[in-house]
Give the backbone structure.
Amino acid sequence: ILNVEQSPQSLHVQEGDSTNFTCSFPSSNFYALHWYRWETAKSPEALFVMTLNGDEKKKGRISATLNTKEGYSYLYIKGSQPEDSATYLCALDTGRRALTFGSGTRLQVQP
Amino acid sequence: DAGVIQSPRHEVTEMGQEVTLRCKPISGHDYLFWYRQTMMRGLELLIYFNNNVPIDDSGMPEDRFSAKMPNASFSTLKIQPSEPRDSAVYFCASSLGGGNTEAFFGQGTRLTVV
């Protein structure tokens, strides 16, 4: 069984706070790492796909880093806004071309 | 493109009945995935296709589940007979190049088996 672990499970922050989440995966089984944002009553939407050790990606106030040697990725949100409230999923491809998802970090940003 | 289209959005059926979920992937995408979302197990892969060919069905729970992709623009997931424990949200997703390209998800089908 492939374990993709995310922490924390949930997070409550105030508007304007910066925050970060962690995704851990077996470093020996790596092909690509994805981050998705999943709003309630909608479907997951891709934020980033990372394939190289040391990759850093950024989209607006959201950024992500990747360390394949130690098996982790961080997702950062700078200056959280209420519209950032969602579940953030990471997913691993080990080369089988399909994704194994973590259980997600549920973020709630209070105005 | 309208994105990945799934139907129906909601399905309520009685135990023992056959259920068919449908998916239209984004045109030009070579990979199609079926996922199931439950509280207990999160988002888990059931099966995926590459160029209409099933590649990995190891996630299909049991023989009651079957999936087909008769052409590049249509796939079905069938449950026969359905059971209450099959109640979940079923997502279809498609991508251009498999695991190193982003997956685009449909809106999901919420299945309730009573």
